Amino acid sequence: MKEIQRMSITDSVVANIKELIISGEYQIEEKLPTEMALCKELKVSRTCVREALRVLQALGFVEMRPGKGAFVANYKQNAANPASFAYKTDGARFHDFMEVRMALETLSVRLAVERCTPKQLQELREIHTAFVEANEIHDMVKMIMLDELFHNEIVNCTSNPLLIDIHKQILDAFRIYRGDSFSNSSVYKNAMEPHARILFCFETHNPELAVNEMKKHLDITSRDMAMIHSSHERK
After folding, report:
1. Which site among 21, 35, 60, 148 is 20 to 30 Å from 98 CA-CA?
2. Is 2 helix (H, G, I), strand (E, B) or coil?
3. 12 and 51 in contact (C-beta within 8 Å)?
4. The pTM is what?
5. Which residue intervals of the chain are DSSP H helices?
6. Between 94-115 and 161-180, two packed helices, what is the crossing angle to 10 degrees?
7. DSSP labels for 158-192?
8. Distances in Å between the alpha carbon of 166 and those of 108, 141, 171?
């Protein structure tokens, strides 16, 4: 394993672990070393390793299993068949996805606030902090990935395996629209304050307010991204 020369560059850690996965040193379904072990091997901080694993998760190379750790995802299948969920979403348009997200994520945030563990709450805090930092340096790619991870972690906090599985399918199919949003940075800047308010609901253990804040957040997202997609359709 190569030693990372610049500890502050998370992208170097991402590239290093990704290379080890693609080279076959870490096989699909294999459990990755613990965060502490990766810190020692790569000579980086635990915060850096955590953020790198989140990025790799969003890229489809790593799967985080609650209570078990990080595992190598079936990235080859994902790359070979990016439309694997197309048969379930045939004919669905952006507003269809947003209607489903509204129902799914408002239920999820209510359950998540009620069931969230201190460790999961800390994970949400760290994801939001990284999201804010990515905005400060105008790293749009990282912002998009961290936005996805923030919402995904909320669903994971429900500890409902059926809800988690349904959300994963919607998440994978929705990525085509997330990709389109690269053209407009305001979409993700507009998520900054809503994410902070949702996190506040976790901090204060207020599920009712969390539902309202999630509705507001998704309404803003729907408005902003619908504008982007309608402009694309007119071209």
Report:
1. 60
2. coil
3. no
4. 0.69
5. 10-22, 35-42, 46-59, 75-80, 94-115, 118-136, 140-156, 161-180, 186-189, 192-203, 207-234
6. 140
7. T--HHHHHHHHHHHHHHHHHHHHGGG-THHHHTTH
8. 11, 25, 9
**75 alpha carbon, distance to own chain's centre:** 16
Q: Which of 222, 1, 195 is nearest to 93 (CA)?
A: 222
Side chain identity, residue 108: S
> pLDDT digit string (tens) for 127-154?
999 889 888 887 777 788 888 889 999 9
Question: Which pair of tokens denotes residue 219?
Answer: 């309404």
Q: Are the C-beta atoms of 170 and 133 separated by less than 8 Å?
A: no
Residue with structure tokens 């994410």? 195
pLDDT tens for each residue of 148-182: 889 999 999 999 999 988 888 887 777 666 655 54
What count of residues does the chain have?
235
pLDDT in tens, 95-122: 888 889 999 999 999 999 999 999 999 9
Assigned token pair, 220: 């803003």
